[in-house]
Amino acid sequence: MLQSDKATTLPPLWSIDRKMTRQITSHENGTSISSSPLLSSPVWDSTPIGKSIYLRLCQCEQLSPQLILEDKVFRSAIRLQHGSTYLTQLKFVGTLIIDDETQRLTYVIDRLQLSDLTKNEINNHHSLLPNKQLNGEFLISIRCDNKNSTTTNSVSNLIQEGMKIIETYCRSSLPIELHQFSFLHGQMLSRLSPSINADLSFDLLTIKNSFKLTPINSEYVQILPTALLKNLSSSTGNGVYINQPHFGYCGLDRMSKNKILLILENDPQACALPLVGIWISGIVDVQCAFVWAACLRYCMNSSLKQRLRTGVNINNITQQSFLLACYLSTSRGQCDFYEVNSMTTNSTSSSSSFIIDYDLWTCSKKIIMPNPPTSHSHDTNVNTQLPYDFEFKHVYDGPKMHALLGAHTGNII
């Protein structure tokens, strides 16, 4: 870490008033997060130099998430459900694809995993499925029944499980995987006579929180020269930072007045130094899901002990903002700076809390095909082997939405 020769004569860069710090307890795991101390002097000029940008996981409201189920997976699931003499636990394996231009979420199911257990063996197994998914893949729980057994309690339990999984991941320091910010599960009801007649439905839980990015002048931001900064700023530097999305933290160097030290995401210094924001590299456009995820991780990572806030007072409400340094892969080493505000942060001058809001989506489709399919069938769709596409619809009311609202009550992070 670089040090200033005049460090011993400088006043403190930040002030932590113990009387102004309130503990906010999480209902999930009993951990507590202190409110962010206020910066004694700003390290950037908040004056906007352009139009603000808004980031969401589902960026375009007109393009709802979609799901694609491969035909081979559907046929295998039907065969296993009706042909096995064992009690079969079935899960689909999916990947999340986000379109670079529209940022639309597409969940693709292209294989499945299962574990066959006899009824005598089931009590001896805590996990029915081994964790064998590849990088970027995730498991999707599927309820396979021959009769409709969905109840309000089962829906509520699934939603609570999804919220717990998402929030635990958001509080962690694990590498960013975009599918981890949503929870997908489904149900398949089927019968074989006289034809294969299946009703498939999927429910999707996504994070609703959004962020406002306001471009600011880069001349007032001072970054300490380090090897990491050299790699990020050089158009011929480390290709890993240019061609693949990366993010880290912006910390205040203790020995340099108002100078920012760029820190890698997994650097232990991130848990010790006072932080003022994040840096991102290897992306084409700042308006993308990875930037949104990095902003959310900065707000919720329970390992980050000192997030400093600017304390800009607007209409008697202290807005908690942080800095974003963005190195686009097309900018040839140039950095764009933004001031970031959470649009769903409830903060006051003495405390802060971050509440996760959720969107609930659902989709369904009835699939009918001959049993068994024959080459003599005149139905051209029988042997086409096309994937089945599902269009998610936003849930605004009904039992599922009531279950979400009930599960969400009191979940303050």
UniProtKB/TrEMBL annotation:
Q: Which InterPro entries match?
A: STIL, STIL_N
Sequence ranges assigned to domain STIL N-terminal in this UniProt record: 43-366
UniProt GO cellular component terms: microtubule organizing center
Name the Pfam families for this protein. STIL_N
Q: What processes in GO biological process is this protein linked to?
A: microtubule organizing center organization; mitotic spindle organization; protein localization to centrosome; smoothened signaling pathway
Q: Which PANTHER family match?
A: SCL-INTERRUPTING LOCUS PROTEIN, TAL1 SCL INTERRUPTING LOCUS
Question: What is this protein's record name?
Answer: STIL N-terminal domain-containing protein
- Lineage of this protein's species? Eukaryota, Metazoa, Spiralia, Gnathifera, Rotifera
